[in-house]
Each structure stands twice: as C-alpha cells, then as structure tokens.
Amino acid sequence: MSSRSLRVYNDQYVWDALMTVGSTRDALLAAAYHCERRAFTPSVIEGAFKTTGLWPFDSAVVLARARENLGISDDGSSARDLAAAMSLEVLAEARQRVASGKCHVSGGSTVVQRGTIHSPYSII
Length: 124
Known about the structure:
Helices cover 66% and strands 0% of the residues. It is mainly alpha-helical and 124 residues long.
C-alpha cells in the first residue's frame, strides 16, 4: 500500500469518527491496520518466505543472505578488508600527486589593494 492509500483511509476513519461523535484518536492506527491487511496477502507472505529461503528451507540462500548482511564476500574477505585495500589505493595516488607536485616550481606576483584587510587564503 502506498502512503496515499494510508492518507485516504485515515481521512475516511477521521470523518467516520466525527460523524458518529466518536474519538479520532485511533483513526491513524485503524487506517494503518487496514492498509496492512490489504498489503500482506498470503501470496506476498509466501513469496517473502521463499525469497529468504525460510520455507521451504534452503540453507544456501539463508547463508548467502547472512554473509551479505554481515559484509562478508564469497571469497571470505570482509567489507573491512575491502575498505582497507581501497583506502591504500587512494593514499598511494595522493602520494604520487604530492610527489609530482614537488617537481614543478611555480612563481608569480600578487597585487593587493592597500588599506584593506585580506584573508591569507584569498591572497594565495
């Protein structure tokens, strides 16, 4: 169910409560329950159990989903190992950029207006 359906049912329950001089306090809860009952049909529930490997039980699917949620890849390396390798690559590229920047000398001159306070960053 969409949030639009929830709003429509909520409005309907609020108006029903107002017309019958009842309490509108539980209108949203009643609307959410109504939408939940319409969304979670037996076929949706059965499909979710099959997709997750719970019924009929499929240990390969359950273990694959557990590894995925824990951040462990199929070769046994963890998400932490992958992140460490990626950060080493980034650091190596940064070192190369710094080293290549040291080879080039740049020069120039700066002209600033007198009597005005300038930030060091704007001068550079």
